[in-house]
Amino acid sequence: MKAFVFEKKGELIMKELPAPKLSGSEADSRAAILKPRFVSPCSSDVHTVYGGPGPRRKDLVLGHEGIGEIVECGSGVKDFKKGELVAVSAVMPDVEDGTGHEGFPFSGGKLGRNTDGLFAELFKVPEADMNLAHIPEGVGPEAALMSTDVMATGFYAAQCADIGSEDTVVVMGTGAIGLMAVAAAKSLSAGRIIALGSEDRRECVKLCEDYGADMYISYRSGEVIFDNGRTESFYGPMGKAYDMAAAANSTSQRAVSKVLELTGSRGAEKILVCGGGRKAIMEACDMASYGVGTVVNAAYIEGTENIELPLFSMGKGMAGKILKFIYCKGGRRQLESMLSMIKEGAVDPSPLVTHRLKGFENIPRALEMMRDKRDGLIKVMVEI
Q1: pLDDT in tens, 174-183
Q2: What is the DSSP string of 72-106?
Q3: For every residue of 283-346, which 3-state class applies, written as one string?
Q4: What is the reported pLDDT for 11?
Q5: For the domain bounded by 2-134+349-383, which CATH number is listed?
Q6: pTM above the 0.85 mark?
Q7: Is residue 145 within 8 Å of residue 139, measured between CB atoms?
Q8: Residues with Cβ < 8 Å from 372, sequence gap 6 or more?
Q9: What are the structural domain ranges in the chain?
């Protein structure tokens, strides 16, 4: 079969590989073989190919966001059958103890990372009953495709932050995951939502407002791009930051200064890091409120050097702030939850798909488009 593999840094090439098969083993009795129908290269695929240290193993097939058609099921698969079009969880569970993803999202492997992914004519999904989900009637392929990773990640980040109705939530990064984090914070009745992102990506600015952000601040300049007027009700007249704010801004980032100014130097209760580069954790810690602030990182951190924490705003180790570093919670239950919200009209992730291609051979082109992100691109869907 044809498959796209990570051969060396900067290259995704097509190769002929043996097609996956069900061997008849106990493990394979619970597996399924699928052919991809809709896939979307992810920013993490971009990091892997263009920024990573090199292949993790020979002929690793990439791709973890997809909808597939079942072509064969093992004898132990109970809930799915040949011919069904299903959503595929990006993260696979480790089921040696029989628990799978029950509260342990890190017990799983990831398609395209430590098991072959979807950028092939056929791919295998272990534990099909735990990793596939039926697509509800009325849910289109764009929305279903976005549920498998970016929506699941954005919503899990917000869930991990334990957002309350009085909380100010800052979402750093307004790509696909950041936009879904905004939607998730809104669904959890956050007090107010401030998004930090690029003012140049107008499509992301608009979707941030559509998904429920109260304010959008330019990450570079610190200027307010939009404000729906709800912000002053939380802290009264704003702009009364005291001198401590300057000391708390360890990177001199203008967006951080603006958030501290808007909150009277108190900062925000919850920070969701969905982008922003290697200094994002430091900036998030600077913006988090003393004693109650929670920082949840859902962003890939590039490079090989350790990241730093700010000494002053972390109270020299005694600031009472919580840091969480999370991974997309995979498995069928999380995926069904996302699809149910889409079905019920609670959130529509389909606008994240801004570009569409057809044909298996266009997967490398789609990956390059995700790297460059031109012409208003947020996510690209490839129909196979």
Answers
A1: 999 999 999 9
A2: EE-TT--S--TT-EEEE-SEEPP-TTS-TTSS-GG
A3: HHHHHECCCCCEEEECCCCCCCCCCCCCCCCCHHHCCCCEEEECCCCCCHHHHHHHHHHHHCCC
A4: 83
A5: 3.90.180.10
A6: yes
A7: no
A8: none
A9: 2-134+349-383, 154-325
Instruction: Return all residues near 312 (Cβ < 8 A) that are at least 6 apart.
Output: 247, 248, 250
Phi, psi for residue 202 in degrees, rounded to 5: -60, -30
pLDDT of res. 246: 57
Class of domain 154-325: alpha beta
Q: What is the pLDDT of residue 241?
A: 47
The residue behind tokens 């129909």 is: 383
Write out pLDDT tens, residues 304-362: 889 999 999 999 999 999 999 988 877 888 899 999 999 999 999 999 999 999 999 99
CATH topology identical between 2-134+349-383 and 154-325: no
Q: How far apart are the first and last CA of the chain?
A: 14
**DSSP3 helix / strand / coil % (the chain, rounded to 5):** 30, 25, 45
Handedness of CA 174, 101, 307, 45 (dihedral sign): negative
* 6 vs 345, residue with greater confidence: 345
Write the DSSP string, 238-272. -----THHHHH-TT--HHHHHHHHHTTT--BSEEE
